[in-house]
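I had to read the description of the data format several times before I understood it. In essence, backbone conformation is discretised, so a fold becomes a row of integers matching the chain in length. I therefore recommend that a typical entry be quoted early in the introduction. For illustration, here is how one protein appears when written out as sequence plus structure tokens.

***
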Amino acid sequence: MCFLLLRASADDADVSEALPEEFSGFLDAVPDDIVELLPEELFSDKTDEVADGVRRMSDFPSLLKTLLSVLGASLGDSLGALARVAGLLLLSAIFGAFRSALRSETMGRAFSFASSLSILAALLTQTYDAVGTVVRYFDRLNRLTTAVIPLSGALWTVGGNVTAAAASSAGLSLYLTVLEEAVGNSVVPFCGICMAFTVVGATDPNIRLGSIVSSLKKHYTTFLAFLMTLLLAMLGFQTTLAARADSLAMRGVKFATGNMIPVVGGSVSELLRTVSAGISYLRGTVGLCALLLIGLSLFPMIARLWLSGVTWQIAAALADLLGCPTEKKLLDETASLCGYLLAAACICSSVLFLAVVLLVRCGAAVG
């Protein structure tokens, strides 16, 4: 028995120096536009070289440069959308002045309706892009979660945390199912309903649907927050308890070995401490690398949604300055929708980050 423990510990010591095969599968899930910004050391098969790449990537100047390059890629589209809407608002203001000069209520309504439709056409195009961004965001989040499940299972298992590996994989699998079924299938209908109510309320001032739209957005975001809170609690509690149970079981084996053969038992304990340090280093390196790559992979979608919201807020302020109340209402509601979509996207990614943080923070059972 002692010989087997020593042999297994030696094998684990060799494994802790090399990266698991699942790490290459996780790198394959990273988008190509993010891969181009990563240091070459991250694609090595040695832990030390990957750790050097993580240090380079997490350095403040390098990280800031990467984030600014991703942000700059989305800034051009937002500025173009703002320029188009600003031009439409200027035309709307000119039509408003012309409408006042006509002194005809019928012609005034016709000009107002034409102006609202022009703004609406531009908004619908940009809102469609925002909805497409959210759909791509959840698709990317699904791919990353699918890649993290085998990677975390391998890293948990190599440290002797077999029960924790099962708990983490089960929790992430449930999270993936919730993302695909409850969240992914509800985002597009939610955005369509909100935009339909917004368009009706903006084109006809006599129909006031603002409170309904606001209530719908708040309740949808609250529902997602409640759902993710349940998943966070389940994943955190079960994984932590399973890791503690694995550590207790391994300590029992070490204690029994030390009592049966004191000299060999002490050697096994020292070797297991060394192996535990190597596994902790491996987990920390791969876990921190995974956290950075997940954040960088999701950041372009977050940046695009944030820039869309800022664009419509600036356009709404310009509409208020030019005296276009109908267009201002439409722009305000669109900016609000982008804000709620941004909140929903950030909330739904919290479970994946927690799963990786638990992997980094919990010690190996063999230690």
